[in-house]
Amino acid sequence: MKLEVKATNSPxxxxxxxxxxxxQSTYGKNAxxxxxxxxxxxxxxxxLSVLATLLAVTHSVIGEILGNSHAAIKVIxxxxxxxxxxxSVLLAGAVKFDKGxxxxxxxxxxxLLKKEIYCYRARVGNYSDLNSRDALLANKVKLISQRLKGTxxxxxxxxxxxxxxxxxxxxxxxxxxxxxxxxxxHNKNDDKFSDLTATNYLKWRLEDQFNWYRKKTRQLDKQLxxxxxxxxxxxxxxxxxxxxxxxxxxAVSTVLAAVFSSFLEIKRxxxxxxxxxxxxxxxxxxxxxxxxxxxxxxxxxxxxxxxxTETTIQSENAGWVQEMNDALTELYGETKxxxxxxxxxxxx
Length: 348
Fold this sequence. Notes:
This is DUF4231 domain-containing protein. By secondary structure, this protein is mainly α. The protein has nine helices and no strands.
């Protein structure tokens, strides 16, 4: 699904649109940062869980061989004391500081802003009135931002977007494109500000989002297969250990399998893979439908093209937000339970 982009004569960039892009970029940047912190903390907790089990089993096995008075046993015993303490601290901090909710809220808001921006640039719906569309976009940006008030996002500081939404070179070309000769070379890439023709919208919005879905589905498919096979293999290893009278090591294979399963569950890999594939298929169907239309029908149905595309993308985004909220609800419930158990063990 690849399209050639036609050049367009672009008006000067709207300051409201520039502010909308900056807000969208700020939300996107901070969503990525929150996601990174969330997974780093969660992976750290999972690794420590495996380490605690491994140390406990090693302490038991080596203790029988060397005796409890050996220096190596004392070192292992020291780590056995430290790991649960560190794990308890991480579990307590995870509920307050892991930024999982921030990641979901910011990404959802960034996608909503992007939808409004592309509808604005395509001049569809209420944005078809050129005299009022700036005011409408400004109001939409305000409403989307207000949705974040009172959420955990306001307990942290948002890093401002420091990149240039519109480079100086693109800005020069954008003004230059207002003349009689369209800047064909410039319009091969999205300047983020020019009004969109149907061809440009298909290239810069529909096809770009379709390619993003396909890229993500390949990544998720690999994760699903690698980690799911890991669970099965570790289950087989556990059975083998029982067969050779090494039951004590089964705890290690079991906790590793649980870690792999937890990773898949935290990321909702399978559900997200299905949703992305469905969204990509829907976008492909929209592109195919558009290709079947005559030139006149394309002129008459441009608004429908935009609305169908944006509805498809937002439906996927809303579903993803709900899935991740469910995952976090389960995760935080388990975290509080584990934190309580760790605290009791430490006190004991």
